[in-house]
Amino acid sequence: MNKPLVILEVREDVALVCIDNPPVNALSRGVREGLVKALRQAAADSRVSAVVLYCAGRTFVAGADIAEFDSGQPSTEDIHELFGLLDGYARPVVAALHGTALGGGLELALVSHFRVASRSAKVGLPEVHLGLLPGAGGTQRLPRLIGAKAALELILSGKQVAADQALALGIVDEVVDGDLLDAAIVFAHRVIEEHRPQRRASALPVNPASVPAGLFEQARQTLAQQRSGNPAPVRIIACVEAAVTQPFTQGLATEQRLFGECLHSPASAALRHRFFAEREVSKIPGLSGNLTPRSISRVGVVGAGTMGGGIAMNFANIGMPVVIVETTQAALDRSLGIVRKNYEAAVAKGRLSPAQLDQRMSLLRGALDYPELAECDLVIEAVFEDLALKKQVCARLGQVCRPGAIIASNTSSLDVDALAQASGRPADVLGMHFFSPAHVMRLLEVVRGAHTGTDVLSTVVKLARTIGKVPVVSGVCYGFIGNRMAECYLREAEQLLLEGATAQQVDAAVESLGLPMGPFRMLDLAGVDVVAKVVIERGKSGQLLAGPTYRAVALKLMELGRYGQKTGSGFYRYEGRTPLPDPAIEQICAALAARHGIIRRHDIAEQEIIERCFYPLINEGAKVLEEGIAYRPGDIDVVWINGYSFPDYLGGPMFWADQLGLSTIAARMDHYAAQLGNEHGYWSQAALLKRLAAAGRGFASLTESELGGATG
Ligand code: 3HC
Ligand code: NAI
Asked: Is the pTM of this model over 0.70?
């Protein structure tokens, strides 16, 4: 028999209603039904003078069951029956909060008459991150409890607030240390003894002092400037405004209507996809759950340049000692100086205390020799991107590191298998591809070599979560998942310049889709020289399937010393950090086009730019899948959202491709192959794309048996 999701126990005069729906007590249909049943039973029990609502396991209800939103059984249908029952409940109901009371979970607490929270509890309404708004009365009850301004801020930001702050705001009535259930029962007894009437948020007026003049107008203006594709914020503002201007039941109806609009929007579907995809990435197909992870308590970093210092910070942030090896004392001093500056900036913003700064700096120790790494459990090399050098470093690490230590490379393009062989202990080796700035960017590509031990892989995936990263496993190939796909995007962006588009036109088209920066602003920021060198190195290794115009503009700009922002000119010219159109680029591109016999056009439309930049990228994603470089289409989406700022409300390139329809993409690839010629295979479709498009299927329909390969 299935374990009940809701358990009722009557202890003297208090009914204890316990929700037990692991892992996070989501308010799924079974829980809602169980709650209605338990509350009706308690209402009919003459012994009961109050109810305490609490949860088993690690947290109070963390929200509605998000999976139900995609199952065609929207959770809000019968949620209102439950919430109506609670609101009008004849006996006081006390919610006891621990862990994270989020979304529908906090709304469940808000409809209860009183709230007691553990000191470690956190509360919040994070629906906005899913393209939703609180749809179980949260937008109406919270402003009545804590005022319109504070409620608006909380709901728009989706932030979690700690119990003490929740108390100060008026979200909870008491914060307790010690046993929460005991404290909630004591609270309930106090309510009974003092004959305190139920405090129904629905019956409270919104405090007029909490609605400064222009509150909603200003919020709308701020939002308009953000140009977000998320449908929720504008509707959240409307709901909170309704809480101020409409009676409760009418406000609730407004909330339900606007919640429905959000729920059925493609953007919310995309954001929900992101939620689950970011969790699924840690599930490695074929890996036994019984693997014992290797213990990591001391880390080494070799090479403290742009990446090494940031990588080290990740570990110091969680209290792990780090040894950083460099070639010179000057390089070490420089790197530790930058790390200190980063921490000082966090102190200035109030995100870190001066004591924490000192503690973190004390965990970082510089060294000039490899034997210092002997005690480390994990060593990450981040020396120059040079295969011969990296092989040497890995060989040294293979000798110096203790048996069982993991050796990782932060290479962004080189062959991890070759490095693994060089180490002499390939089972201990894998890639940990951090993104720049390494202490900020959430993405970590974990590159699984042909011989990487499964325990090594699972250790690093877990460790990545500990340092706050989203780990995505990639097989070995040039550029792994992200940079490999980015190559096609950059190639086509530059090709468009040769054909007559301007840099600002291409950037504007890409930015209109929601990326914060188009390709040329991005290249100018990253350094045209850095990017061009990668193309040159790749060319030398014979890996380029490319024609003579491949990345020709970047190569030319490098030759001219136009390295981007740092030299004051690149694809743009710069006044400070402001990019300005530069007629010189037009001339450079016209000359290159003439040399290569490219006819320039002046009719390149935004749609063409978007299709030509992104469809080859999606096509490459299909190749990444069919080769088994990525486990799932969702993994690719997670890479692009977290590593390349692809708009989350489009769900990542593969989810977006499914929305556009793979047959549409395939047809446009054929169109461009015919229009532009396909001498170098740029427009050849991946077999997987072709097959799915012909069958009218999307990437999301791929089954486990159709996926997997090189990574498995
Ligand atoms: N619905 C369904 N599944 C959920 C869920 C939810 N609300 N919240 C978490 N899960 C699942 C996760 O998918 C994961 O499943 P898996 O183990 O199969 O991968 C499992 O629970 C554990 O989740 P995490 O890995 O995220 O665990 P953490 O301990 O790191 O974090 C958490 C816990 C802070 C609760 C985090 O899961 C979270 O933020 N959850 C979502 C909270 C949220 O967005 N709530 C609002 C939902 S929408 C809503 O309530 C609408 C209402 O207004 C009508
Ligand atoms: P960098 O040039 O800023 O730093 C490299 C550092 O390695 C230098 O400080 C150098 O002194 C040191 N070094 C060289 N040989 C050494 C040795 N034998 N022992 C110890 N230290 C040595 O390079 P950056 O940008 O930090 O890149 C490092 C690695 O990270 C490369 O593999 C690169 O591809 C990768 N990467 C870089 C990203 C970026 O945006 N810069 C992003 C992701 C990965």
From this structure: yes
| 279 CA: nearest ligand 1 atom | 19
SS3 365: strand
Residues paired with 15 in a beta bridge: 10, 51
- Can you give the pLDDT at residue 75? 56
Enumerate the active-site residues: 107, 127
pLDDT over threshold 50, residue 710: no
Which residue stretches of 500-551 are H helix? 503-513, 519-526, 528-540
Helix (H) or strand (E) holding 434: strand 429-434
Say which ligand is closest to the CA of 323.
Answer: 2
Distance (Å) from CA 322 to ligand 2 centroid: 17
Give 348 Cα–ligand 2 centroid separation in angstroms: 28
Candidate of 5, 19, 21, 24 to mutate for ligand 1, largest count of ligand atoms within 8 Å of Cβ: 24
User: Minimum mean pLDDT among 114-118, 290-294, 409-413, 570-574: which range?
Assistant: 290-294
CA of 279 to the centre of ligand 1 (A): 9
pLDDT, tens digit (0-9, with 9 covering 90-100), for 148-178: 999 999 999 999 999 999 999 999 999 999 9
Q: Per residue in 66-108, pLDDT tens?
A: 999 987 665 566 888 999 999 999 999 999 999 999 999 999 9
- Backbone phi, psi, residue 548, to 5°: -70, -15
CA-proximal residue: ligand 1, atom 45 (nearest): 63
What is the DSSP secondary structure assignment for residue 545, as one 8-state letter? -
- Do 6-264 and 482-706 agree at the fold level? no
> What's residue 613's pLDDT?
98
Which helix (H) or strand (E) segment holds residue 340: the answer is: helix 329-348
CA of 503 to the centre of ligand 1 (A): 42
Q: Which of 576, 607, 575, 584 is nearest to 672 (CA)?
A: 607
Given the CA of residue 126, which atom of ligand 1 is nearest to it?
Answer: 44
pLDDT at 547: 80
Mean pLDDT of all residues in 325-338: 97
Candidate from 66, 252, 461 with most ligand 1 atoms within 8 A of CB, to mutate: 66
Residue nearest to atom 14 of ligand 2 (CA): 383
CA geometry: angle at 547 spanning 546 and 553, to 5°? 95
Question: Ligand 2, closest atom to CA 530?
Answer: 41
Q: What is the CA 601 to chain-centroid distance, rounded?
A: 39
Is the pLDDT score of 709 beyond 60?
no
Phi, psi of 651 (to 5 degrees): 80, 5
- Cα 276 to averaged position of ligand 1 atoms, centre (Å): 9
Distances 158 to 169, 231, 236, 271, 416 between C-alpha atoms, Å: 16, 14, 11, 14, 40
Main-chain phi, psi angles of 626, to 5 degrees? -70, -25
Percentages helix, strand, coil for the chain (3-state, rounded to 5) are 55, 10, 35
Strands (E) across 486-591 are located at: 573-575, 578-580
- Atom 16 in ligand 1: residue holding the nearest Cα: 279
- Tell me the ligand closest to 301's alpha carbon: 2
Domain ranges of the chain: 6-264, 299-474, 482-706
Q: Which CATH architecture has domain 6-264?
A: Alpha-Beta Complex (3.90)
Report the alpha-carbon distance of residue 331 to residue 316 in Å, rounded.
19
CB atoms within 10 A of CB 3: 8
Return the structure tokens found at 319: 């209290």
The CATH homologous superfamily of the domain defined by 299-474: NAD(P)-binding Rossmann-like Domain (3.40.50.720)
Question: Which ligand is in closest contact with the Cα of 106?
Answer: 1
Show the ligand 2 pocket: residues with CB < 6 angstroms: 302-308, 325-327, 331, 382-385, 389, 393, 410-412, 434-436
pLDDT at res. 382: 97
CATH 1.10.1040.50 fits 482-706, yes or no: yes
User: What is the tens place of the pLDDT at every residue in 502-525?
Assistant: 999 999 999 999 999 999 999 999
Where does the pLDDT of residue 712 fall: very low under 50, low under 70, confident under 90, or very high at 90 and above?
A: very low
Mean pLDDT of 450-462: 97
